[in-house]
Amino acid sequence: MKISKILIAALILICAIGIVSAAELPNLQVPDTFKDLGGGSYSNEADDIEIDIFNDTDLKSYFTNDTATKLTVTPGKINNTYNFTDGVNELFGICELVKINDDQYVIQVWANSDSSDTSLDRFYDALEQVNKLNNITPEDASTL
User: Fold this and answer.
1) Cβ distance 34 to 46 under 8 Å?
2) Which of 21, 28, 70, 99 is paired with 40 by a 20 to 30 Å CA distance?
3) 77: exposed, middle or buried (C-beta count within 10 Å: 0-12, 13-18, 19+)?
4) What helix, strand, coil percent values describe the chain, rounded to 5?
5) 107-125, pLDDT tens digit by residue?
């Protein structure tokens, strides 16, 4: 009886892993200066800039101020983009909501707060290149 319960639990676990892995992040085309780190993360070590793509269940949290987590979000210079600072993780950057293959994702371009040479203009340049390479445009995050 114990063995059958263990087998059933193992089968459920295998199915759950299969469901999670089926929700893979799309591979973005990024500027040549970025290295693909896997899992939706890209890094440009020379400019100290990171790009991440997320498809969390609560995408709205990326666009909402939260004093508990020290997240501050303000409208960006490009329509439907947002500047953010994350006081807990000590990083800053820009983000946007996009639709790829009928699924919504958040793309963040960011750096650690102690990155003295990094500016928002570099983030916007990288984000605009990603959008152009992937033929995507930012969507209105207020619809979340």
Assistant:
1) no
2) 70
3) exposed
4) 30, 35, 35
5) 999 999 877 667 899 999 9
State the Cα–Cα distance between residues 141 and 137, nearest whole angstrom: 12
Parse the chain into domains and list their residue ranges.
Answer: 26-143
Q: What is the pTM of this model?
A: 0.81
Please write the tens of the pLDDT for every residue from 11-25. Answer: 454 544 434 444 588
Tell me 57's DSSP state: S
Token pair belonging to 92: 């800053």
Total Cβ atoms within 10 A of residue 100: 16
> Across all residues in the chain, what is the average pLDDT?
86
